[in-house]
Each structure stands twice: as structure tokens, then as C-alpha cells.
Amino acid sequence: MRITDVRATTVTVPLQAPLRHSNGAHWGRFVRTLVEVETDNGLVGLGEMGGGGESAEAAVRALRDYLVGHDPARTEALRFMLANPTASLYNNRTQLLAAIEFACLDLQGQHLGVPVHDLLGGRVRDRVEFASYLFFRYPSADGDGEVRTAEQLVEHASRLRRAHGFRVHKVKGGVFSPDYELECYRALAEAFPGDRFRYDPNGALSVEEAVRFARGIEDLPNDFIEDPTFGLNGLRRVREKTSLAIATNTVVVNFEQLAANVRDPAVDVILLDTTFWGGIRPCVKAAGVCETFQLSVAVHSSGELGVQLASMLHMGAVVPNLSFAADAHYHHLVDDVIDGGKLTYVDGAIEVPSGPGLGVRLDGDKVAEYAELYRELGGYPYDRDPGRPGWYPLLPNADFADPTVPGSTWNEARL
């Protein structure tokens, strides 16, 4: 089996409402680049990647000459073919490598008639539990869906809990002042006794503010506090001053950083992202290192459609030391580009695909629909806030949004 072609298609799929975060916002939609790798036996493997609200089509297509003629079973060689660590100082291709790796594993599984998790050692669980990834949100184009107050946050979580069965709740913070978000977080915990909680301000807080926030929630049933400040040294200082477990998906995203954290611990929970780490296989390897040194792991989300969600599910299926519910933005989507529509949550979990390869295929009509929507709307700056023109955050941030200001209703052209 040899690769004969590599194709890329950018799509934009609407969200229920624009999602706010400490660095800006998802402006009412996700922009994702779908990758198709074709082989000489007629199989097509699927990959997917983001790009901060922008297309990665040109970058994927530029890899065609590297890949044509390559055996997709040689996935270890891809690491050096596409993302040589020295060459990558000039053209960091880690996320591109991940999308190609998904497709190559998909091809191998289809060729052999087995799911990807069988290629990775076989599943140890049939379902992966997820948390209700909660964002402060602007209202959608029709004026619905705003999450700005503690009451709105609790109501939003309650609807998701009823619809999908979530029993773990993650608050994406760093939007409003830490004191305000502390009130919202505690209101959420009070509303759902018996559930578990986690907080993630994307590194926006100073060390001192992060310590103060952590101490303000130590009495609650927390899983962890994620990236309360930025950098391993900052996280280490917070860790020394709180009883909470510290998690990260920003400063331990490769093996050098993982080694540094093992040698001088700053983080207790490593959030493995199949894109940020360069594929499913590196995440499984990293989970093995974490198992050896008794670090916990969880599955991180970087804003997925169904193809990347499948990669997350296969990874979550084979990692024995998966200690926490996974993250996913998936429930915020109004649609998907895979056959059969969106995968379904049951009791807060999604079943691991059992079909050959990744176990998902593209719906051609949906891809065409959302590719056309991308051509109509274009990209958006993920690191800007549409409600705060000219604003950008510093690290640590002190210029937080005002929670007393109602969100604007954004027309379809801006979403």
C-alpha cells in the first residue's frame, strides 16, 4: 500500500453560540481542515486539524510531495519526514503531522479490517467519559445562548446534564475577574452536589491570583485546576501553595517538557491532545511515561469535529491510566461532517468506534455544505474578542471583561 494523493478541505461548522476564553473567542463556529490521504488500493484515510480560526489547506497540500509513494504503515518515519525537530525550528509541523498520522492509522485499520485501537494494543474500555465543557458565551445570532452570569452558567450546565448525562463539569475561565469567576464556580458546585468540577483560565492569572483562587475552591469536589497560571515555574509555585492537583495542556505538550516535569514536578495531570502532541501514538507513549512516574492523564480537546473526536476516543480506549473524564467542545456544535451526524453521548460518555480504522467516514454533502460556508464567511481571529475591539490580553492578564455588560447579538455575517 502506497500513498498516491493528499487532499485538504476547509470547513466551518456553526456552534450553538460564540464561546469566550481568556485569549479571545470562538466566533460562533469552528474552522477545521479535513485531510484525506488516498492510497494505490483505493482506500482513503481521514485526518483533521484546526488552526486558530484559519485554514491549513495550503500547508497540508505542501506535504504532498513528501508523502506520495510512502507506506502509511511506516508511521514512525513520519515524525522525521514531516516534523524533524531541527527543521521544525523553521516550520513547526506538529499539528500537520498529527492530521497525517490520523489518516495513516485510519488507512492501516481499513486495510486490515480492524479499528485503530486494535493497532495500538487493544481497548481497555468501550466508552470514554466526558466533562461538560462550560464556556461563558455571547448570545447567538437569534439572541439565545448567552452565558454571562452565575445563574446562566448553572442553567446551561443543567441543560447539558439532562441532555447528555454529564457528571463532571469544566469551567473555561479567564474571561471575567477571578473573584467573579470564583462566585460562578462555587454556584455551579452548589447546584450539583455529588458531581465533580475543574477550572481552566488558560494561564491568564498571576501566580498570586491563581493561589488565591485555588484556596477559594479547595473545599469543593475538584478534579484539578488547569493552567491557573502560565509556565512550569509558575505552576510549580501554585502547586506548592494549594492542595489541588495541577493540570496542563499548554506547557507539557512534548517529551522534553514531560521529562522536565518528571525531574522537577510542577504538574500532576498531563492533558494529552492528539493534535498538540503530534498524533495518537505520541499520546499513548506519553501516557506510558506518565504511568511509570505515576502522573495522571486525561484527554484534552482542541475544538474537534467527528474525525478528531474519533482520534480522541481511540486514544482514550487504550490508555489504562486515564484517570479523569475527557474534555470535548463537541456538544457545542450544531452539526458534524461525518456519516450519520454527531456521535451521541449516553450517560456522559461516548462509545469508542468499532469499525475499521477510525470508524468514521465523511458525509460528502455535509462537507460540501460547510466548505461553502467557509468560503462565504472566511476565517476569524481566535485570539481576539469580537465584543472588545482592539483588546488583547497580557500574561498575566488584568484587563478582564465586564460581566455587567450584556453580550451583543452577532449577525450571521460576523459569526
TrEMBL record:
Pathway: Carbohydrate acid metabolism; D-glucarate degradation; 2,5-dioxopentanoate from D-glucarate: step 1/2. It comes from the Bacteria. Signal peptide: none annotated. This is glucarate dehydratase. GO terms for molecular function: glucarate dehydratase activity. Coiled coil: none annotated. It catalyses: D-glucarate = 5-dehydro-4-deoxy-D-glucarate + H2O. It is an enzyme of class 4 (lyase). SUPFAM superfamilies: Enolase C-terminal domain-like (SSF51604), Enolase N-terminal domain-like (SSF54826). Its EC number is 4.2.1.40. Pfam families: MR_MLE_C, MR_MLE_N. GO terms for biological process: amino acid catabolic process. Residues 150-245 form the Mandelate racemase/muconate lactonizing enzyme C-terminal domain. Gene3D superfamilies: Enolase-like C-terminal domain, Enolase-like, N-terminal domain.
